[in-house]
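Lab notebook, bench 4. The sequencing result for the construct came back, and we need a structural model before the next group meeting so we can plan mutations. Quick request posted to the team channel:

Model the 3D structure of this chain.
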Amino acid sequence: MTVHYVGIGGIGVVRGPEDVLKTMALGSCVAIMLLDPVRRIVGMDHVALPDSSIDPAQARERPGHFADTGLPALLAEMGKAGFVGDGRSLIVKLAGGAAVIEAGASFDIGRRNVLAIKKLLWARRMGAVAEDIGGNISRTVEVSVSEGRVHIHSPGRGSWEI
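Done. Here's the predicted structure in token form:
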């Protein structure tokens, strides 16, 4: 098994049968996971913020940092790995989007990230088949090419799958 780590604002795509994508410490950030069950390609974006208009320079350097630039960049990277299509044949899963600072805070980045990502997915006629979002917990997420399952772990809460 080869684990490929996806950092904050990072995008990862793998297709080897022993490959695993993993991201850690998802608080208000959201992991978008795309699985191509036909070609056995898995992609992940660790989205930190909903809208790139606050920092266009960063969006050009690290499009995965923002929801609005990250999803198109993730789909493009999956295309480089062999995915063909508009995304509607992909299995979509989401994790993260917690309110880790203060529940109900005016910024509520976690909720804003989730809403931005869902709007982008809906505009492409895509939707998540599974999600583990919200709450006030940090999550570590990994998805393997061979299993196609998303494993989530949170300190003090244990592990589960979506």
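Strands lie at 2-5, 11-14, 19-26, 30-36, 41-47, 91-96, 128-133, 139-144, 150-154, 158-161.
Will bring this to the meeting.
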